[in-house]
Amino acid sequence: MFVIGLTGGIGSGKTEVTHVLRELGAVVIESDKVAHLSYRPGTDAYDEIIEQFGKEVQDDSGVIDRAKLGGLVFAGPDLRIRLENIVWPAVRSCITERLIKEKERGTEIIVIEVPKLFEAGWEDLADAIWTVEAPSAVIAQRVNVRSNLSETEKNARVQAQMTREERAERADLLIENSGELADLRERITDLWRTNPEIQNAINN
Predict the structure, then answer these.
(1) CATH assignment, 2-203
(2) pLDDT tens digits, residue range 140-158?
(3) DSSP state, residue 175
(4) How far apart are CA 115 and CA 121, in angstroms?
(5) What pTM does this model have?
(6) Of 56, 95, 149, 197, which is least packed with CB atoms within 10 Å of its CB?
(7) Are 151 and 74 in contact (CB under 8 A)?
(8) 88-123 residue pLDDT tens
């Protein structure tokens, strides 16, 4: 089994890369979706979030309102770090369990999409780390089109991540995504067909 850790900045194109890899046959684990599951009532993370941030982050039904929580924690790094210290261990545990199950099933290629993979210190979960990056101007345009966030919220999310240069230096593979969507899809398809680690996992 070959595990790819996929990371990259906001608006870089990570989601499209996971779509292509899934179409090609990879199993994709999206850390954000795992994190959302940890917010469900009855989980340890849920209880600790309510204890740390108060009932104002709940909606009328008692479920954590992610928009309210996000607006709160991105207002200051101390609150964001406090939330990460609650959620990240729960997410890592779930991902680790999933990796064990996928290995038992005989899964060949797994992609773990983690926006803050290096910040979380999860390099050890993957055999190789790919980062998807794009120029700042391109990212700004994409985020403006796709996001309902205010400028302040967008900037807070960007500032909460490593720079593209830091990710590129630490990753095993840099995927530049400054062109058209078709170009990115072609690049990922070529990687799938020519990457020796992927092909070795598929053929053995």
Answers:
(1) 3.40.50.300
(2) 776 666 666 666 666 777 7
(3) E
(4) 12
(5) 0.90
(6) 56
(7) no
(8) 999 999 999 999 999 999 999 999 999 999 999 999
